[in-house]
Amino acid sequence: MPVTARSFAKINLGLRIGASRSDGFHELRTVYQTIALHDIIRVTVMRGTGIEIRCEDPRVPKGEANTCYRVVERAMAALRARGRVIVEIEKRLPVQGGLGGASGNAVAVLLALDAALNTQLSGTERLRIAAEVGSDLPLFLLGGTVLGVGRGEEGSTACVVALPEVGVSTPKAFGDWDLLIAGQSLSSKQRIAGRGPAWRGAGAPPQTRRGTPARSKLTVADPSDRMTVLGREFSAWLSSASGVPVGKGRGRAETQLLDLVRTGIENDFEQVVFPKYPELREVKSMLQRAGAFYASLSGSGSATYGLFASRSIAEKAVARLKKAGVAAVVTRTLTRREYWKKILD
After folding, report:
1. Is 2 exposed, middle or buried (0-12, 13-18, 19+ CB in 10 A)?
2. What confidence tens digit (pLDDT) does each residue in 3-29 have?
3. What residue numbers bound the domain in which 189 lies?
4. pLDDT of 139 higher than 70
């Protein structure tokens, strides 16, 4: 008999891309937030051997490239279990949408497999398997609001997720980001170098009040510096979130999210994705014009979301988006408690 699980989506509340690491990945800083949109996962264990992935969406890989396949492979080995595992994926979330569909699917499979085998991997083993398979997977072992570094209890907030018919490749987006940063660094160095001969040919360089040469302001911020600044902003938000009094007429969740928005968080991917897909920039603008107190690309996109003060305002925003030909749905953020209550319910 199959075990059914919900595979919830996530959005990114701000995202900063750091330097490329020795393992080929980039350092990231972001706040993950699970939302109520989800895929459906069914896991069946029967006699035999092997792993079979079933999904009607042709874009979902059926072999070892699928995160669910890799999770099952590792979990069966860790449990020293035998049997043929069949994973059925009912896709409701967009592929390459930036909502963490593949990662959420894999964690849902891990939990459903445990239930199907009537076993329970330790928290440490689950985390190890998740981290080996993908950078986003550990998030889905927590749920709710999660600070993502390297590769509390909160309330619910109305959320609109716009789903443009565009597929954005995350590896390509990272590559475009690297090219952008490299180009800015080269341009800055060329401009700074170009000032040298001018100074030598036209007298002394500009002087500060103390008589020392003025420093150029054209240098690009070091990636590690950018990560440090955002880390401090997140730390300040986390420190204040635990003790901020709830304003009159506002819930705790809205207060915390507004505090986070006030830090000026942005998604770095927008700098390279929006120029290539200007329709996504327009979707974000539409969400803002419809009353979102925060709107952003989720991950590398193409899903774009807005956070709203109430469900009624969010529903009006969806109506405006649909009138403009953009698919969109109203959902809400999920607390950690709700996430775990619903995932295998």
Report:
1. middle
2. 999 999 999 888 877 767 666 666 777
3. 170-193+218-336
4. yes
114 and 175 in a single domain? The answer is no
237 and 133 within one domain: no
Over residues 100-124, the pLDDT tens digits come to 999 999 999 999 999 999 998 999 9
User: Is 345 inside a domain boundary?
Assistant: no
User: Which one-letter DSSP state was computed for residue 137?
Assistant: G
What is the rounded CA–CA span in Å between residue 253 and residue 335? 10
Q: How far is CA 78 from the centre of its chain?
A: 28
**Residue 86 is inside which H or E element, if any?**
strand 84-90
What backbone torsions phi and psi does residue 119 show, to the nearest 5 degrees? -125, 180
Q: Give me the helix-helix angle, 123-133 and 67-79, nearest 10°.
A: 140
Cβ atoms of residues 51 and 61 within 8 Å: no
Q: Is 136 a catalytic residue?
A: yes
- Both 299 and 178 in one domain: the answer is yes
Residue with tokens 């709203």: 308
Structural Rg of the chain based on CA atoms: 23
Indicate if 182 and 116 belong to the same structural domain: no
Task: Take residue 98 and report the two structure tokens written for it.
Answer: 């930036």
Dmax (CA) of the chain: 85
**Cα–Cα nearest to 18, from 230, 186, 302:** 230
- CA separation for the pair 92, 62 (Å, rounded): 17
pLDDT (0 to 100) of residue 229:
67
Please report whether residue 115 resides in a domain. yes
Q: How many domains does the chain have?
A: 2
Query: 10 Å Cβ neighbour count for 318?
Result: 21
Spatial strand order of the sheet with 304-308 comes to 294-297, 304-308, 158-162, 328-332
Q: What is the DSSP letter of 211?
A: S
User: To which H or E segment does residue 33 belong?
Assistant: strand 26-46
Catalytic entry in 10, 39, 114, 284 = 10
Chain centroid to CA 149: 12
List 114, 136, 176, 268, catalytic entry = 136
Q: Residue 177's pLDDT band (boundaries 50, 70, 90)?
A: confident
Do both 265 and 294 map to the same domain? yes
